[in-house]
What does this fold into?
Amino acid sequence: MQTLWSEENRYKTWLKVELAVLEARFKLRELPREGFEAIRYHARINVARINELDNLYRHDMIAFIESVQESLETAGVGKWKNEFHKKLTSYNVEDPAMVLLLRSATNAIIFVLHGLHSALRDKAVEHRNTIMIARTHGQYAEPTSFGHLLMVFEFGIKRSIERLHNVVRDELNQGNISGAVGVYGELDPKVEAKALEILELRPAQA
It folds into this structure.
């Protein structure tokens, strides 16, 4: 989880969104294959350089863009650098990237919860005949089994897993790549739809 939310992975996810937009523009014939492949193969993330530029500009997205453009120049494909982030605003990159990060984090939590659920289920069976006294308001109540108590926790975890699956399916499935202030001034809605499809997302309604 620490790696997922690291600064480097955030910038890598931003780059993933940028490349999805470039691929969409290529597929819609807005960008030549040469330009798309030049950027896709040579764009690099340099966290130290981004931080250096961020200290100068006080704007992490501008720092990110300039750093990637520098990597294109270093690779000898600088003539395509202005196609990077073209027609986009910061939110068009940050919003889908945040959804992707949240989705990855949620899936990681689900994976761990499956392990916990399995362990609770096994222990509930193992201790189905282990007698204990139940409590209510901290006071002794009725006899029960430790296995029964673990089964209650097991079903609670199962419901949590189901709710998180619903979040991934119904909430963490949308993004916004609609240009400045969301009015598609320069950006074709087809580019948004295609880029989000590449990212396995769909356009947000608003």
